[in-house]
Amino acid sequence: MFLSQGAHACADRKDFMASEYTIRDLASEFEVTTRTIRFYEDQGLLMPERRGQHRIFSLRDRIRLRLILRGKRLGFSLAEIREIIDMYDEQPGEVGQLEHFLEKLEMRRADLQEKLNDIEMTLSELDAVEAVCRQRLTDMKKGKAAE
Description:
Strand content: 5-15%
Order of helices and strands: HEHHEEHHH
Protein name: MerR family transcriptional regulator
Keywords: Coiled coil, DNA-binding
Structural class: mainly alpha
Radius of gyration: 25 Å
CATH topology: Multidrug-efflux Transporter Regulator, Chain: A, Domain 2
Number of strands: 3
Number of helices: 6
Largest sheet: 3 strands, antiparallel
CATH architecture: Orthogonal Bundle
GO molecular function: DNA binding; DNA-binding transcription factor activity
Helix content: over 70%
CATH class: Mainly Alpha
Organism: Aestuariispira insulae
Strand order of the largest sheet: 1-3-2
InterPro entries: DNA-bd_dom_put_sf, MerR-type_HTH_dom, MerR_fam
């Protein structure tokens, strides 16, 4: 799903029927810098063909870039993203990839829920401290006015 969903989404879009892309094409489409794309290439996540000084990216690279960026937005590390994407080509293939990805999503959701609970508790504590401070300030001002 993680990889195949991107593949199906790409196949349905007529504006991206090209089979080759330059680094500028991808940077423009995904609104990232060429440096970002070169970084993902250096990490082995993208494997463009070299034609002289030029990098030529395939549809597969384009899909992988889309999935890398999606994974980053979801809060996954590059190692986790690589593991999920690479599972598509390994046994048990897409089934294993989907099962693994669902486990990762569940773990990510639990982590975010825990952080949300911590944030809500902290906000509640801030509200309580603020109320005490405001009351103390009000009392102090009333005391000065009475003098």
